[in-house]
């Protein structure tokens, strides 16, 4: 009898993890892994180039992608309005560059300056989205366009006329309006303010990080099991698989670092350096996203996200919670844009913020997220895949068709297509559920 | 008195009131600045006809219940394809324009049909999905403009491969409609052909909405449940609305191109849906109700505003493109306003 039960349970386990289901629910991600691999092969770019470029782009963009998660939790879908947050960041950068404060001091001042603006903008966006319930995503997108108009109005026409500003470097020669591009390089701005603080070779960091993880995780489990009354096992499947994974990383690192016989082009990989501080900041945001779910506010987000009506009945101020979610997202987007721009090194006054929502959302969706569910892992994986495509597609297009432009178009086609397709699939699934 | 005023503003709509008074204000400023009023009026009329049919394409979409057609680029691309094939065939003059129209029709019908089926599967999030479908198709076709085997020397780059970004229509169908029965009233140019064509399209759409199918479509859009109960196939009606809207988009872009004198490829159609949506909303339509009168009023107000704003702005601030910024603020502000009126599921 017990045997029978066991068999049934195993069957259930198999049902939970059936390959077909896995393939269907992760189709977008799997498709992207394949497209990326083909792209890497076609582009014939050296592995070193792709890896180092990818690492830069990861540290540059993941903060922005992660800023999208909280509104998803609160059931508001993907926040296409992070553009507005990015504008707050850029306003702060323009001010700080004008005052001539450079380096990390300037960066920190940007962080402080952009916060109140982003909170104000987020608040307003939240209020707007409360008036357009059910259409939040398109409303936030149009709100981004609208804000872009006002932003342009301020920086093209009010600077120099209503807002006194005399700075021959930044203001156009006529004295009205900010220049199209503002240089943020080392001596005049905040370029690499965060990235260049501490830089270490990536594989040493990986090696140390993994060993640290093994130690801390083992200790944590040890501590937990000792304190729990139930006699649960120490060596569970998840624990062992995690450990095996870690040991594999350690082995790869060791081979790369200490073996002198491997070919030179792979050996080059060990020279890639990792901006530690930026990584720590991104890590802190991940931790924040995990921890906020455990607070009262985080639980409110989830309740509102699952069912507005029930949330209201159980005494949650739904509108207020939604405003808070968007405000946090906007604030994070402002800071994300600061990280993005300090790495890029030039502020394109009227263009830097335009595309970020599209690209961040595409990245998140490629990672396997949907309108109603997004995790940190999906965000990071999506950023990797999306940016791999970004790096290889112009070269792949050139090699395949003899025209780099085709790769660029393909990239944009994919970014928009993925967003359209994922949102469409989500809407379709929701309708199917409603019909049932 | 105040009651009457309120009733009037309610009926006329606050945004329309603001835009109209702003338009009139700009016009007075233009008069005071002694700008060439006649050319401004001629320009307004020309742009009115030029954008009119693209805005008209919103009507069947809204009436059938799919909301403003943010996927207008789909129709636009079909129109461009028709125009290009017509040029490729070596046609000139009025023949090339009408050939372009007829060639684009089958493309537009098929695309509209497929797109309508897709929209039926995603009821409730049409606007957002439509926007991104439109965007991605524009980029897909950008690849195609490079790869498609067009040969006509006026369309392809002399060196390299692919079609030019802008193709001049001087030798083919440029200003064919504009110059048809063109006459002047004291300095004001009236492009009779263009206006006639636009009003004819309006009339056809109006006739269609009076037909049995049109009435069914409207009913399906107004109240899908009630329509289904009275035996109307709501999904079919929505597909017909989408097809009609796509076809009008295709016709609209050809009219636009001939009036403009150029065909623009690549990213040009990307953002074209937004001004059209804004125009019909300014005209008094909502995301669920639209009439021909909304189109005519809306496109006149919106395009008139932009035409007059440009020289006035240039007179006041010489640097930068204030008119473009103004367009962005007005256009997106109007769409946002309309969205707040739709929303509110609780």
Automatic annotation (TrEMBL), chain B:
Annotated GO MF terms: transmembrane transporter activity
Pfam families membership: BPD_transp_2
Lipid bilayer topology: Multi-pass membrane protein
Chief location category: membrane
Any Gene Ontology CC annotation: plasma membrane
Subcellular location, record wording: Cell membrane
Coiled coil: none
Transmembrane segments: 12-33, 45-63, 70-91, 97-117, 129-148, 181-208, 239-257, 263-283, 295-313
Protein's name in the database: ABC transporter permease
Lineage of source species: Bacteria, Bacillati, Bacillota, Clostridia, Eubacteriales
